[in-house]
Amino acid sequence: MKIFLKLVIILLISFNLYSREIGETEITTEDGIEVFQEEKFYLLKKNVIIESDNFTLSADDVKINFDKNLYDITNLYAEGNVSFFSNDFAMNGNGETLNFKIKTEKLRVQGKQSELITKDVKMFSDGFIEVNNLNGDFSLKGSNSKLINESIIIEAYSIDGNFVDNNNIKEITFLEVYDEKISYVKNNDTEMYAKTINFNNNTSIIELIDNVTIIRNEEKITGDYGTLDTMNNSYKIKSKNKNKVKAIIQDNEQ
């Protein structure tokens, strides 16, 4: 039997959660709510839908930890066909599980074909996607991990970095990318391949380590180590262990 509850909850969730003076949250669940007062959590069971002015969340089951009362939420964990949308941050995503830690504002989506999409950034992974709204840190781990925004495409098993808001646009200030096979980064008109690719906005340098390939225009250069200066759009590649740098330049005018 489906149970419908209409609760007055002081709650706002997305990447952020804070108190509201007036608001309602509607919870629909087929198997009801089970409250554990001493342990300070409650379970929303089977085909759960949570709707408020600011977010919508659906999942097979949801566990909510609280502090002083049911509305004083400290952690939200959803599992099974998780889907969510936030109006305030124009954000949506899905995965097998979702975990949101309120105090640290850390959101983690996990499972095959997980995705997290905002107006500026799209993130995908078969492992997990984690974003910290307080400090801008983000992490993607697992097969088919991919990050896309207006100026960059990143594909690797492991993608760690940091966002900052610049005129309401998320910009990457720090990046560590690794894949034991090969990582891929496309920045404007340049494609880069290497096992390890690092970027630091303070130096404006993209560093490439092991099995390096840089492709730009009609140029393709390979080597063991390379750097690309994003300020002046120049790059260089060098070799180690007696390997030689190889350059292929195609003339399309012939």
Describe this protein's structure.
The protein is mostly beta strands. It has no helices and 21 strands. It has a ten-stranded antiparallel β-barrel with strand order 7-8-11-12-15-16-14-13-10-9. It is elongated and about 65 Å long.
How do the helices and strands line up, and which of them pair or pack?
Layout: E1 3-7, E2 25-29, E3 33-36, E4 41-51, E5 55-66, E6 73-86, E7 91-101, E8 106-110, E9 114-117, E10 122-125, E11 128-132, E12 137-141, E13 146-148, E14 152-155, E15 158-166, E16 169-187, E17 190-200, E18 205-216, E19 219-229, E20 234-238, E21 246-249
Antiparallel strand pairs: 1-2, 2-4, 3-4, 4-5, 5-6, 6-7, 7-8, 7-9, 8-11, 9-10, 10-13, 11-12, 12-15, 13-14, 14-16, 15-16, 16-17, 17-18, 18-19, 19-20, 19-21
Keyword list:
single chain; 254 residues; mainly beta; ten-stranded antiparallel beta barrel; 21 strands; elongated; disordered N terminus
